[in-house]
Amino acid sequence: MHRRLLLKTLPGLSFGLGACTAPPAPLRVGAIAFAGYAFLFLAERLGRLDASRLRLNELRSNTDALRALSTHRIEAAALTLDEVITAVHEGVPMKVIAVLDSSQGADAVMARPSIAEPAQARGCRIGVEATATGGLVLGAFLEKAGLKPGDVQPVPMRLAQAAEAYSAGRVDLAITAEPWVTALESLGARRLFDSREMPGRIVDVLAVRSESGASHAGALRALLAAHFGALAAYRANPQALAAELAPWLKLPVEQVPSAFRGLHLPTPEESRQLLAPGGAVAVGLPGLVNLMRELRLLGGPVDVSTLIDTRWLAAPP
């Protein structure tokens, strides 16, 4: 019997087929190969991410992640908080759902050995990523050095290009983060300034497009559980799991612990506290917006009153 004729002969079957709905497409998540995001990828390597619900995409830069969010090629991303604010300012509706890390020295200005003081950067070429974070670190460094933006020569680069640009002689200083700070130190570069001198300003978060939260609620909860589970597993057995992280971080196994130097990696409860009303991140959010406006990283006001949403961060048992 012909298939179409068979369908006509089975009462109610066509209704049943029409009532079936396809499962939602996987939640697409973007992140770069930065140490603070490493446990998302470690969770994937450990088989803790369900590929039918979650798809992790390694991107070259956070600028690429912002572009992918704005063009609907991903629904969620690991970004710095200031980059999420930038996305909202540019019309991308976002929610911050968890804190992945806070920088306490992990972001640094690395310089050639001949540059011993920040003031000696006058007239020098400084590699910096064209992101809000790059602008924040550069602004803080120049303030400490007593210099103006016109006193240095910015050289656009991605964070991961710092060692290459330094080795090739294209920059005299580079603004980057771990694990690339460690790579520069191995080349003889010295740490001239780092995020310890701008406390609370660089916070990495997991953020999702606002309209995707409800349709991917289960996937978001699973993603956060996988991240924090992988972090706990690493803390319990760092030597064994360093071997899993080394290829992704592009570091020898013995240097993997140094990639997390200067990063505070919160537990789920700490993340919840940081984002709760009265928490450090929530309280500092308006001040960060104001600082970004002062540095001309934003062209106008940004409403961040509803930016934080922790409903997907599972409550403690």
UniProtKB/TrEMBL annotation:
PROSITE patterns found in the cross-reference section: PROKAR_LIPOPROTEIN
Any one Pfam family match given in the protein's UniProt record, by short name: NMT1_2
Major localisation: periplasm
GO cellular component: periplasmic space
Keywords: Signal
Compartments in which it is found: Periplasm
Source species, domain of life: Bacteria
UniProt similarity note: Belongs to the bacterial solute-binding protein SsuA/TauA family.
Protein name: Nitrate/sulfonate/bicarbonate ABC transporter
UniProt source species: Rubrivivax rivuli
